[in-house]
Specification:
The chain has 179 residues and is α+β, with helices and mostly antiparallel strands. It is built from six helices and nine strands, in the order H-H-E-E-E-E-E-E-H-E-E-H-H-E-H. The strands form two sheets. The chain has a five-stranded mixed β-sheet. Helix 1 runs antiparallel to helix 5 and helix 4 crosses helix 5.
Length: 179
């Protein structure tokens, strides 16, 4: 869950309220490809429950890693406007929070402070992911786990206000499960 904490640690309660009000919570069954390499994305995703597999054609479509609770998906395409460089498929039933790209873009154009906080959060998120990837490649294995499933609640060292971020994530999950 540490990756989403990076984002939640940067955003305000009002920002999170907006995300909840403008997102869709979806249960996705196993075997569904949520992100297709080379195809446009229409949303930014937050994994609330479940496990997903990452594959890329440049690696012969072999599984490169797994994504679990707390990961954000589609952030690279959102930031740089390019098509996804990998496919992401559900391994088991997943609960996914989808924030439509169009609404997120409109919000960022209308609310400069939200935009600042959001991009700062995504920048820290991507930095954390890249550092983790480099470290895992240094361990001489060819498989990435974006988060250790046994350490689901580990908090990344660059999370500002980790207690606040974690309480926001728990609050987010509670609100979504009640609706």
């Amino acid at each position: 869950m540490s990756k989403v904490l990076i984002i939640l640690g940067e955003l305000s309660d009002r920002d999170i309220d907006w995300m909840i009000a403008n997102s869709t919570r979806t249960k996705v069954p196993p075997g569904i490809t949520l992100i297709v390499e080379g195809k446009p994305l229409d949303a930014l995703y937050i994994v609330l429950e479940g496990t997903l597999s990452v594959t890329a054609s440049v690696m012969g479509k072999k599984e490169l890693g797994q994504i679990i609770c707390g990961e954000v998906l589609g952030e690279m395409s959102f930031v740089d406007g390019r098509l996804p460089s990998a496919s992401v498929t559900t391994i088991d039933e997943c609960l996914i929070l989808s924030i439509p790209r169009r609404l997120l873009t409109e919000k960022m154009e209308q609310d400069v402070l939200f935009s600042l906080r959001f991009y700062r959060a995504v920048t820290k998120f991507l930095s954390s992911r890249l550092r983790g990837t480099v470290q895992r490649f240094g361990e001489e294995n060819d498989y990435l786990i974006y988060q250790n499933p046994d350490d689901e609640f580990a908090i990344a060292p660059n999370v500002e206000n980790p207690d606040l971020a974690e309480s926001r994530f728990q609050w987010l999950l509670k609100r979504l499960k009640e609706s």
